[in-house]
Design goal:
18% helix; alpha+beta; 282 residues; 5 helices; 17 strands
Length: 282
């Protein structure tokens, strides 16, 4: 779908914007099926962040698009890559990875304040994520974003989701994330009432966090992540998530284009899936 100019300007100014009803219902159903398969057969990076004996369940997993066909088809066929290209101002779009975050009813665990790019082995400014709710999400359970924080020129130390502490092997030049009270007092925080079909687009350096889910409904979310023309694969000092791909990945310092991060949109041409389910790059 063509994007409204105001939405594009808002995304580039604030580093976050709410896009309504751009994911077709059939894709929501397919992603729900993929998430249920993912939870039944977790991948190697899966985590359960809720301590034993506590209510609810906070489940996270990522980098499963190559083994879960619903995820792979969504990246290639849903049309979201074209939206990513418009927001980034990029002539090509690489699939970076997906991240599934499920908070069952009664979950108290928060998602710590962080921004994504310091976790990534990626340099560049053309990095966008789409947080896609698969259930209705009130603003009280929605992730919260610090408007304009992607333009601060700051790189903050990655936080462990399990206990909100900095990773022990974080690069020494990263700063500590400001505390939540300071963020609320000094900056504009935005959150949204979301319906399935909506999504939140946000930049790789936009600070965000999320409350627990003490409501009656599930809060299943699928985050789709993309990179653009200027993105370069880098091997950082310290913690990286996801870990660098063992094979099929790009050379350090080079463009993302590779089997691990295929080009799925280029100058209006889209990738396709082979009969075996492999991505044929655009």
């Amino acid at each position: 779908m063509p994007l409204d100019t105001e939405f594009i300007e808002q995304y580039r100014r604030d580093g976050v914007a709410h896009l309504e009803q751009v994911i077709a219902p059939e894709w929501i159903e397919r992603l729900r099926a993929g998430v249920e398969e993912n939870m039944a057969r977790p991948g190697p990076y899966a985590k359960l962040y809720t301590p034993e004996g506590q209510p609810g369940k906070f489940f996270g997993d990522y980098c499963n698009w190559q083994r879960i066909p619903e995820y792979r088809a969504f990246f290639v066929e849903s049309g979201l890559a074209a939206i990513a290209a418009t927001l980034m101002g990029s002539r090509k779009v690489n699939l970076y990875h997906e991240h599934v975050l499920v908070k069952e009813p009664g979950t108290r665990e928060k998602t710590p304040w962080h921004h994504d790019q310091p976790y990534y082995p990626v340099d560049g400014v053309q990095i966008v994520s789409f947080w896609i709710p698969l259930d209705p999400v009130p603003s009280s359970s929605c992730p919260q974003y610090v408007a304009g924080s992607h333009r601060w020129g700051k790189w903050y130390a990655p936080k462990r989701f399990a206990d909100s502490q900095d990773h022990a092997n974080t690069a020494p030049d990263y700063e500590a994330v400001p505390d939540e009270e300071t963020l609320r007092r000094e900056h504009e925080l935005v959150a949204y009432d979301l319906r399935p079909g909506d999504c939140i687009a946000f930049h790789g350096l936009t600070l965000h966090g999320a409350p627990g889910n003490e409501h009656a409904g599930r809060r299943r979310a699928f985050a789709a992540r993309f990179t653009g023309d200027d993105a370069r694969f880098v091997l950082r000092e310290g913690f990286m998530s996801p870990p660098p791909p063992p094979e099929g990945g790009p050379a350090s310092g080079g463009p993302m284009d590779s089997d691990a991060f295929p080009v799925i949109w280029r100058d209006g041409a889209v990738a396709s899936l082979s009969a075996e389910g492999r991505v044929r790059p655009a």
